[in-house]
Amino acid sequence: MKVLFIHQNFPGQFKHLAPALAAQGHEVTAVGINQPSAPTPGVRIFLHKPQVPANAAQIAPRSFQELQTKVIRGVSAMAALTRLKKEEGLAPDLIFAHSGWGETFFVKDLFPAARMLVYAEYYFNAVGGDVGFDPEFTSPESESSQLMQLKNLNLAHALVQADRGVSPTHFQRERHPPILRERIEVIHDGIETTRFVPSQSVVVTLQKAGLTFRPGDEVVTFTVRQLEPYRGYHSFMRALPELMSLRPQAHVVIAGGDDTSYGAKPPPGTTWKDVFLKEVAGRIDMKRLHYVGRIPHNVLTQLMQVSAAHVYLTYPFVLSWSTLEAMSCGCLVVGSRTAPVEEVIEHGVNGLLVDFFDPAAIARTVADALARREELAPLREAARRTIVERFDLQSICLPRQIDLVLRTGRGE
User: Fold this and answer.
1) Which of 21, 50, 173, 251 could bridge across to 167 with cysteines, CB 3.0–4.6 Å?
2) CA distance 157 to 77
3) Does the global pTM surpass 0.85?
4) ∠130-65-104 over CA atoms, to 5°?
5) Do 22 and 90 share a structural domain?
């Protein structure tokens, strides 16, 4: 079978699937925008570069800029694929595309006979999701509604054209309208449970702080792609004064970038990291708070292996892979009582849940988890068991992904 992957940050969610299909003898091609950090074995990768008009920022309101950007990406992808069809003889039997950035807009016009599978990551809704969840950072209702509807145009268009869709969690599938939801299967991207394992011998050294942590140390971890409200950074920081007071020996390690991936931007000239650090700086022990920025994945894994309590807070949005990796490492996760987290963590069974908006409850829950570390050891074991039994890459998720690709490609 000839398979074409489309993803602006390829391999992205196709990191394991694309090379696995190539290893089985399928002809695999990928088209993206950004240069991959490493080769994907057996996969031919081609890049395209969307050209944004110089006057694009003059379009108002912001919602129309959002749509324009996606159409531009669709046009750029179409041009690249047209060239590959002409020069390379590209003729896929199956197209597997992430629909989030607009590259799928015109694909079926070029390859009408190809079957199409869409990675349906998230569909925006006015109720039950991220939109309007946090009043502190909600846009004016009119702008928020316009932006939400236009964000969904390319997502709905892709699923209407597709033969089938796939979402990694039930929460993400259920965000879609019923008419689109019917064609979406739930298969997670998969966690490498043989790589993300508990360890009693790992050592993590924070060079800037001159500190070394081992399993058994009182380390609280908070790891996200970016330090921003969508991932509860503000709630976590507001919990630190009480947490540090309750646990005077605890060290807090925060990993994440200073940018904004989702939602509201910070005030001009600032970062969310600094905004909320300044809010609590006079009430916390700065010697026990350690920012490590964006760190290599292997170091992040070691950090989770030494963590005494791992805090994960999120809007009702896409569940971070890192949370499942932390659970696979045997972390005691203190998570927000929001739908994507509740799909995986049951309070008192394989983790602990807290109110996203209650810093005092977050502080007390983490402090209690540190105080009762031995007593709560079964939760750590149950956390890893959850990932092994439901999300293991090799035994569960990857075989199901391959089966979905083959079934869709054969028209079954």
Assistant:
1) 173
2) 16
3) yes
4) 75
5) yes
If one compares 295 and 64, the residue with the highest pLDDT of the two is 295
Are 158 and 63 within one domain?
yes
Q: CA separation (Å) from 43 to 29, 171, 335, 409?
A: 5, 31, 37, 18
Kindly give, in sequence order, each residue whose CB lies less than 8 Å from that of residue 246, ignoring residues fewer than 6 positions away.
363, 364, 367
Can you read off the two tokens belonging to residue 67? 């749509």
My answer on whether 369 and 400 are in the same domain is no
Task: Give, in order, the Cα–Cα distances in Å from 164 to each of 28, 177, 190.
Answer: 19, 14, 19
Res 303 pLDDT > 80:
yes
211 and 179 fall within a common domain: no
374: CATH: 3.40.50.2000
31, 174: one domain: yes
Residues 307, 326: contact at Cβ < 8 Å?
Answer: yes
Reading the block at residue 13, the tokens are 């969610």
Q: Which residue has the higher pLDDT, 62 or 246?
A: 246
Residues 215 and 300 in one domain: yes
Domain residue limits at 362: 204-391
d(CA 63, CA 147): 4
pLDDT at 127 (0 to 100): 78
In sequence order, which residues have a C-beta less than 8 Å from that of residue 207 and are 6 or more positions away? none
Confidence at residue 125, expressed as pLDDT on a 0 to 100 scale = 85
- 296 burial via Cβ count (<10 Å: 0-12, 13-18, 19+): exposed
Looking at residue 139, its pLDDT comes to 61
Tell me if 199 is assigned to some domain.
no
197 and 328 Cβ atoms separated by less than 8 Å: yes
CA proximity to 197, closest of 341, 381, 41, 404 = 381
Distance between CA 19 and CA 42 in Å, rounded?
Answer: 6
Identify whether the C-beta of residue 130 lies closer than 8 Å to the C-beta of residue 177: no
In angstroms, the first-to-last Cα distance of the chain is 14
Q: Is 51 found in the same domain as 171?
A: yes
In this predicted structure, what is the pLDDT of residue 145?
Answer: 74
pLDDT at 148: 83
